[in-house]
Design a protein that fits this description.
Elements lengths: L11 E10 L6 E11 L4 E5 L6 H9 L6 E6 L2 E2 L7 E4 L11 H5 L1 H5 L8 H10 L15 H13 L5 E5 L7 H18 L2 E5 L3 H7 L2 E5 L6 E6 L14 H13 L5
Parallel strand pairs: 3-8, 3-9, 6-7, 7-8
Antiparallel strand pairs: 1-2, 1-4, 4-5, 9-10
Helix pairs in contact: 5-6, 7-8
Amino acid sequence: MTVQQDIQIPAIEIAGLAKRYASRSGGTVALRDVSLTVGRHEFVCIVGPSGCGKSTLLKIISGIEPPSDGLVRRFGEVVTEPTPDIGMVFQAPVLMKWRTVLDNVLFPIDALGLKRRDYIDKAQALLKLAGLEAFAKSWPRQLSGGMQQRVALCRALIYDPPFLLMDEPFGALDALTRDQMNVELMRIWSETKKATLLITHSVAEAVFLADRVLVMSGRPGTILEDIRIDLPRPRHTGMRTEAAFMEHVRHISSLLGVHD
């Protein structure tokens, strides 16, 4: 049985992770004793104060940065370098203004040296799923911020990675567009069921999206609590006013030192 066939192996497994940065003043400990797992079809959100090491954690998971201590396994294999089995979505869409929407979605295929013709139908299907089918030949400047972020999500999904890492993907959007993108992401996730780890500063966003919310401490960052969000799916914006939703928000906010 291969690793990919063994559904018992989590998408991500982190044990005793630490990250230290050396400096003339003695260095900085960004992460300390971080341990967590993400199941193969789980949506997990991480919340924590600014500077607690959330983005550093994603860089280590992706293989961009090495840990100082501990280890990261993706589908049972120790992470030592970046690999194409992870789709990344950043806070800014980072679309290439000289490429059409369709060409932006296909950029990873071009970069990996794969045959573009084998992925055209997949790219068009993703754009349809994201409600962007009519904009395939448009330029990024012709799209709203939310539409550009949907293009970035399609780009991350184009080569069918089994795992998505999302670093505050909606942080730059206005509140209304952000809520709309939460619903859109939930819809796309329900179709793909990709293992997903998303960083956000919005507690309400984390509760709305996640199967579990991991709350991090201030620097050096570690996991304070792993909270299962027992809200039914599919979720809708009306849930944000329900008692169970608001109780999760209150509890997580209190862990972060945010009070009414």
